[in-house]
Write a structure and sequence with these properties.
The complex is a heterodimer of chains A (959) and B (215). Chain A is of the alpha+beta class and 959 residues long. Chain A has 7 domains: 148 residues, Roll (Ubiquitin-like (UB roll)); 174 residues, 3-Layer(bba) Sandwich (FAD/NAD(P)-binding domain), CATH 3.50.50.60; 123 residues, FAD/NAD(P)-binding domain (3-Layer(bba) Sandwich), CATH 3.50.50; 88 residues, Arc Repressor Mutant, subunit A; 43 residues, no CATH class; 91 residues, Aminomethyltransferase beta-barrel domains (Alpha-Beta Plaits, 2-Layer Sandwich); 127 residues, Probable tRNA modification gtpase trme, domain 1 (Gyrase A, domain 2), CATH 3.30.1360. Helices cover 23% and strands 28% of the residues of chain A. Chain A has 23 helices and 47 strands. In chain A, a hairpin with a 5-residue loop joins strand 46 and strand 47. The relative contact order of chain B is 0.21. Chain B has 2 domains: 129 residues, 2-Layer Sandwich (Gyrase A, domain 2); 68 residues, Alpha-Beta Plaits (2-Layer Sandwich), CATH 3.30.70. With 215 residues, chain B is α+β, with helices and mostly antiparallel strands. Classes of the chains: A alpha+beta (959), B alpha+beta (215). At the A-B interface, strand 8 of A face strand 8, helix 4 and helix 6 of B.
């Protein structure tokens, strides 16, 4: 129920917020979370457990459990404890069958003895039943429902920068932030809560003025300090190398880079383990305090408080101050140093029972509430009536980020807690996560860490501050009570009971990592925040070891579940577009990605399908003239007295003897003799070469050549002009006639022969022209400055109307070069292909003093060939399903090769292709069998290449 | 409108009905006004195309001496830039690489002077953008992992980094209160980067602007 206004509450009572949950309308206030509004409205249970579908309500009120998780429209797994209420929310509990109140799957609870630990794995042992179990588990398990129609939300990802990042805005974090800022550092403080202050705001032990002051004073100063930036409702989800911390807040993922980090993330309060410890009304003491002081919700009327430290007494005082009757405080310890809160509790007349524990909580109707507790101690057992139980038996450090940063932790016996032993440089810890629990000591510890962090970042000197040792152990070493009937839960996410651990260890899973995977402890959405420590204690006791010897499981990012909309938010996929992009678009280009480039695959024509368009484009090149954008090719220059020497060393052919004004095919190998790139090298001057690389190779080849040139210290320099030049290939029998209309260059075969390179002016634009024959026709590659590429294209298209010029795309080019038998690196080669395999021996000049890969090729050349790339044809009458690239060549039932290229040639009237085959199958005329995907085979015949114009007559002047 | 050559690498993205164009002989046409809301966008977050300026590049071990012989004052250290007294700038991209921009006479001089030993001319066909406005830092934070406050602190720096996955050169002009960031990228990445930057700018209340709106 809602309390009268509580000083410091987070509510704006002037704003009512209406929402629905499980079909019923509720009202809360601005500032409420979903859970607080529902508890204020006495909504009863908030969720069902994962496995047994037991009724659940608030446990931590901090989403350190998944008792309260909702579906909100197409948003699954909304964390009710910490998600702000919004007007119009239409919520439902996740993982129910027939609604929250009458979940039909709750029958599983009575079948629990048939569902022992590890039953998933055991079920799947039987192959025959695997499909049935899979279907069943898929139906029964899971949390929220994912909608596949959810639009892609392009949430922002941003970088952030600061000198000191403080994670956690509790008492120690705020003190650290102030200390660092006062030394001059730029500080960012992040906290997952809606407001800063941490436990300083809700662990009050009544209404003591000192507590108020302690809670508020540092926060006021932090907010006023110009050197501190506070980010609330933001959590540090993961720590990465070099102090990169992922911050998740709202719809933004921030990659924060900082010079030093202070982890003041506090500790998770831990549940006690006793029978029915999961009943609605049983919660952690800190959850009740959050409900009272943040949301003005009285969580119960009659409470039993189970404790083992001062915090439990403070919680009892907080509840009592707000009208809750404290039936008794049960202290697990036989004796304790009488602390101030304990004395105050006794002074209020609240019964305190030392050396007592809870044996069993008594459920109300249908297990949807608690009505009492059976307690035992000092040889007696009794029943206490209550409608709520608070658990305050200890803490586990929120050390996930410290682990991710590489911190070595040790188990501190006096605290019964893991604490940092060795912190990485630039990482600091303070407060509860550092084993400091007393409020005043936490502030001192924060000052120490903040000062040291600022000093590490280069601001001032680290102050020497002595932090007093804890006077009492804040955590009980064994808050666990066995019960023959079980239902004493250790992991509330996964419905794991004490006996599950006993059984797992009995089956041999006695290592913490194995135990985790077999039992699934800590594998739920809360990632062991409330369960790992108890699991570790149980394993330690069952195996007769100390907690330090058992160790912890590996903490990996993320610390909390991160919405997929953030992880899959805005991404950057750079793509390059040639200067002719808009021209292609206007012509109906169908785009394809070629490496990072957008290229026209073909140009769409109305009423014609893709194949028709591609074949028509190819035929236009064969019969008239075609124009293709080849601006994606790598375009490099090497200039200097030793330019030729560089090319001699990196390509397998010779270039020192290349005449000025001529080009030569160029193949590049790596050190192992594998073909990695090809292109054309042209000589512009004695000391100046212009050469192309493959589209995908440009950047890497430039990098590699630059590296080699630096290493070899040759007197030449390399310039990458890939993006600076637009380039087209004008090809076809009418290309020369067309080009002659736009240039004064002498295009005769004598003046401008095949493979020649010329510089001239085309359509008023300075250009470099190369006579190339990649597609098997008379043609010119024309390179112009990129900013004049569109003008060149327009001029060629305009002049080309008289010659039936047609633009052609990548697919038509692939077909045309296949007819000519030219290979494409990366398609007709792979990561093992050497020049011998693909018939490039003619380009290989082994008599050169040196080139990259030469030594390997000497060895390879002496070995027998394992494969050979050959041409093949299908019968002209063939009209079935044609093989595709990568289909296998089969010989005597064995794999004997694979198809690398295949297409139907409109020029030749049959299917042609290239395939790797074993050398004994490479003879022209050999019949080979190609197996299709449906395992049928197609017969083909090895054929000589080029398929088209084998004598290269197309590059010669007609007689 | 018929455009003479040459064209900006992002020319086609600027072809909106409301754009007001500026043409100068031998230079790509530029957009002086994108639309009527340019001043508002520029105040918040504006992205303008600055690619139209003449530019040239030169690299190689002889580049520094060669440029000095041409009478140019050179930045003394790598990754820094200097304005020319008569307009334009020269940036030193590395020990032996330079970018000259915005001064037609200087650019023509460099392009027309025969190269000397150890001097390698670089054809610069960059896409160049100017970013301004009160939310410009947010745009930079969403696209680049460099803290650009270092540039504002030392405006002579020329930064080579990656923005939205594309290699860029960045410098800051303007003043500390109203910085204007200029960035260069390979022209073939220009359309992608323009679309990315203006897309985010629009989410932040700004967008593409003409050159007249730049502070």
């Amino acid at each position: 129920m809602r309390l009268p206004p509580v000083p410091g509450e987070w509510l704006d009572r002037s704003v009512d917020v209406s929402f629905s949950f499980e079909g019923k309308t509720y009202r809360g206030h601005a500032g409420d979370t979903i859970s607080s509004a529902l508890l204020a409205a006495d909504a009863g249970i908030l969720g069902r457990s994962f496995k047994y579908h037991r009724p659940r309500s608030v446990l931590s009120m901090a989403n350190h459990d998944v008792n309260a998780v909702c579906q909100w429209g197409d948003r699954p797994n909304v964390r009710a404890d910490v998600t702000r209420l919004q007007a119009g929310m239409d919520l439902a509990a996740v993982n129910t069958f027939g609604g929250l109140k009458s979940d039909k799957a709750s029958v599983l609870g009575s079948l629990s003895r048939f569902l022992p630990v590890g039953f998933y794995y055991k079920s799947f042992h039987t192959k025959r039943l695997f499909p049935m179990w899979e279907r069943l588990f898929r139906t029964l398990t899971g949390l929220g429902k994912v909608s596949f129609n959810t639009p892609h939300i392009r949430t922002a990802k941003r970088y952030g920068f600061c000198d000191v990042l403080v994670i956690g805005a509790g008492p120690s974090g705020l003190a650290a932030a102030l200390a660092a800022a006062e030394q001059g550092a730029e500080v960012v403080v992040v906290d997952e809560n809606a407001r800063a202050g941490g436990s300083g705001g809700y662990v009050r032990g009544g209404f003591g003025p000192q507590a108020e002051q302690l809670a508020d004073d540092p926060l006021t100063r932090v907010l006023a300090h110009p050197g501190v930036r506070l980010m609330t409702e933001t959590y540090a989800a993961g720590y990465y190398a070099d102090h990169w911390v992922a911050l998740v807040g709202g719809d933004v993922l921030t990659k924060m880079r900082t010079k030093s980090v202070v982890v003041a993330s506090g500790a998770y309060e831990q549940p006690a383990v006793f029978r029915n410890n999961d009943l609605p009304g049983i919660m952690l003491a800190s959850a009740a305090q959050r409900l009272i002081y943040r949301y003005a919700v009285r969580p119960m009327q009659q409470a039993v408080v189970l404790t083992a430290n001062q915090d439990g007494y403070r919680a009892a005082l907080d509840l009592a101050a707000h009208g809750v009757e404290i039936v008794a405080v049960l202290d697990l310890r036989l004796s304790s140093t009488a602390s101030e809160p304990e004395l105050a509790v006794k002074a209020r007349g609240i019964p305190v029972l030392p050396g007592h524990h809870i044996v069993e909580a008594l459920p109300g109707a249908n297990g949807k509430s608690v009505v009492g507790a059976i307690v035992a101690g000092r040889g007696k057992m009794r029943t206490l009536a209550c409608d709520g139980i608070l658990m305050s038996i200890g803490w586990a450090p929120a050390a996930n980020l410290l682990y991710q940063a590489g911190t070595r932790m040790r188990y501190e016996q006096s605290l019964e807690q893991f604490v940092p032993d060795t912190l990485p440089p630039g990482v600091f810890a303070c407060g509860r996560v550092n084993g400091v629990h007393t409020l005043s000591a936490r502030r001192l510890d924060g000052q120490r860490a903040g000062s040291a962090a600022a000093a590490h970042a280069g601001f001032g000197d680290a102050r020497v501050i002595t932090v007093p040792a804890e006077m009492e152990c804040p955590t009980h070493p064994w808050p666990i009570v066995a019960h023959p009937k079980g239902k004493n839960f250790v992991d509330f996410d996964e419905d794991l009971q004490l006996k599950d651990f006993e059984n797992a260890v009995q089956e041999g899973f006695d290592n913490i990592e194995l135990l985790k995977r077999f039992s699934t402890v800590g594998m739920g959405p809360s990632q062991g925040k409330h369960s790992n420590m108890n699991a570790l204690r149980i394993l330690a006791r069952l195996t007769g070891r100390e907690p330090q010897q058992v160790g912890t499981t590996t903490a990996r990012p993320f610390f909390h579940p991160v919405p997929m909309s953030l992880l899959g938010g805005r991404g950057f996929s750079p793509e390059r577009r040639t200067p002719l992009h808009a021209r292609h678009e206007a012509l109906g280009a169908q785009w394809m990605m070629a490496s990072v480039w957008q290229r026209p695959e073909h140009y769409r024509l109305t009423d014609k399908d893709r194949q028709q368009c591609i074949r028509e484009e190819a035929m236009a090149v064969r019969q008239n003239v075609g124009l293709i954008d080849v601006g994606t090719l790598g375009k490099l220059e090497v200039i200097g007295p030793q330019a030729a020497e560089l090319l001699e060393r990196v390509y397998i052919s010779k270039y020192a003897n290349l005449k000025v004004g001529m080009t030569r095919y160029a193949v590049m190998c790596d050190e192992s003799g594998v073909v990695i790139d090809d292109g054309v090298v042209g000589r512009l001057a004695e000391d100046h070469f212009y050469f192309t690389t493959t589209t995908s190779g440009a950047a890497t080849i430039y990098r590699e050549l630059s590296r080699l040139n630096t290493m070899w210290r040759l007197d030449c320099g390399i310039v990458n002009h890939t993006g600076a030049f637009a380039a087209v290939n004008l090809a076809g029998p009418k290309s020369r006639a067309l080009l002659s209309r736009l240039t004064s260059l002498d295009l005769s075969a004598t003046a401008f022969p095949y493979l020649a390179l010329r510089e001239g002016v085309v359509a008023g634009i300075p250009a470099r022209l190369m006579r190339v024959g990649f597609v098997g026709e008379w043609g010119y590659e024309i390179h112009v400055p990129a900013n004049q590429g569109a003008t060149l294209w327009d001029a060629l298209m305009a002049a080309g109307k008289a010659f039936a010029l047609r633009p052609f795309g990548v697919e038509a080019q692939r077909l045309l070069r296949l007819e000519k038998g030219h290979i494409i690196i990366g398609q007709d080669t792979d990561g093992l292909t050497n020049p011998f395999d693909v018939g490039l021996e003619w380009a290989l000049k082994m008599d050169k003093p040196f080139f990259v890969g030469q030594r390997s090729l000497h060895v390879i050349g002496r070995q027998p060939r394992k494969q050979k790339l050959v041409g093949f044809v299908l019968d002209a009458q063939f009209n079935g399903s044609a093989p595709q690239e990568c289909h296998l060549v089969i010989d005597c039932g064995e794999i004997a090769g694979r198809v690398t290229s295949i297409a139907w040639s409109p020029t030749l009237g049959c299917h042609i292709g290239l395939a790797f085959v074993r050398p004994e199958l490479a003879e022209t005329g050999t019949a080979i069998a190609i197996r299709l995907t449906d395992r049928s085979t197609v017969s083909a015949t090895v054929a000589r290449t080029p398929f088209y114009d084998p004598d290269n007559l197309k590059q010669k002047e007609p007689a | 409108m018929k455009f003479p050559s040459p064209l900006s690498p992002i020319h086609d993205a600027l072809l909106t009905g409301a754009a007001v164009w500026n043409s100068a002989d031998s230079l790509p046409p530029s957009v002086s006004q994108f639309d009527a809301s340019d001043p508002q966008k520029a105040a918040l977050l504006g992205v303008a195309d600055h690619s139209h300026l003449p530019r040239a590049g030169v690299k190689g071990p002889g580049a520094t001496g060669w440029l000095a012989e041409l009478g140019l004052s050179l930045p003394s250290r790598s990754n820094s830039w200097l304005p020319f007294p008569d307009g334009g700038l020269i940036g030193r991209l590395g020990n032996t690489e330079y970018l000259i921009e915005g001064n037609a006479a200087r650019v023509a001089q460099i392009m027309q002077t025969p190269r000397a030993p150890g001097v390698y001319p670089v054809l610069r066909q960059d896409a160049v953008f100017a970013l301004c406005g009160s939310r410009v830092n947010e745009l930079l934070l969403q696209t680049c992992n460099v803290d650009f406050r270092c540039l504002v602190a030392d405006p002579t720096q020329l930064l080579l980094t990656s923005m939205a996955g594309v290699s860029v050169l960045v410098l800051v002009a303007g003043n500390k209160i109203h910085p204007v960031y200029r960035l260069w990228c390979d022209g073939t990445y220009g359309l992608y980067l323009w679309e990315t930057l203006t897309g985010i700018a629009e989410e932040l209340g700004g967008g593409g602007i003409g050159l007249d709106a730049l502070p």
